[in-house]
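Students often ask why inverse folding is considered easier than folding. One informal answer: many sequences map to the same fold, so there is more than one right answer. In these notes we will look at a single instance of the problem. The structure comes first.
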C-alpha cells in the first residue's frame, strides 16, 4: 500500500510543530513533509518522480514570503500531474477575496485557523481524517 503523505506548506515553524504533534498522534503512519513556502514546495514536488510518492493532500497557508499560497495554486494548476493533488487552505486569512481566489483555483476546502485550540485541533484532524479515509478507500 502507498504511504499516506501530507505536505504542509507553512512558514511559521511553531504552527508546523503543532500540526506535526497533532498528526503524529492521530495518524502515526503518516509521512509528514514540510516546506516553508510555495517555491520550496514546488522544488520538492518537482523531485518526486513516482506519482504514488506525491502528497495525498496539501495543507497550504496563504500568507507566506517568496511564493504565497495563491501564487502556488496558480502554478500547480498549470501542471497536469500536480493539479490532481487535493489542496486544503489552512490560513489566518478570513478575507473574502482570498477565499474567492482559492475557490476559483479549485481548492478542496478553506479553513481559517481558529484561536480556540480545541476547534483548531479538531479542524486539523477532520481535514486529515477525510483525506486518510479517501486514500485508504482509494477514492
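Output (designed amino acids):
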Amino acid at each position: 500500500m502507498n504511504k499516506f503523505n501530507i505536505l504542509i506548506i507553512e512558514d511559521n515553524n511553531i504552527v508546523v510543530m503543532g500540526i506535526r504533534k497533532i498528526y503524529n498522534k492521530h495518524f502515526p503512519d503518516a509521512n509528514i513533509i514540510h516546506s516553508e513556502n510555495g517555491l520550496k514546495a514546488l522544488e520538492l514536488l518537482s523531485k518526486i518522480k513516482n506519482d504514488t510518492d506525491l502528497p495525498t493532500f496539501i495543507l497550504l497557508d496563504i500568507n507566506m514570503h517568496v511564493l504565497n499560497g495563491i501564487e502556488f495554486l496558480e502554478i500547480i494548476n498549470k501542471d497536469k500531474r500536480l493539479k490532481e493533488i487535493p489542496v486544503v487552505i489552512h490560513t489566518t486569512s478570513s478575507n473574502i477575496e482570498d477565499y474567492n481566489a482559492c475557490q476559483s483555483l479549485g481548492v478542496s476546502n478553506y479553513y481559517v485557523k481558529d484561536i480556540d485550540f480545541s476547534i483548531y485541533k479538531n479542524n486539523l484532524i477532520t481535514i486529515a481524517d477525510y483525506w486518510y479515509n479517501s486514500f485508504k478507500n482509494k477514492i
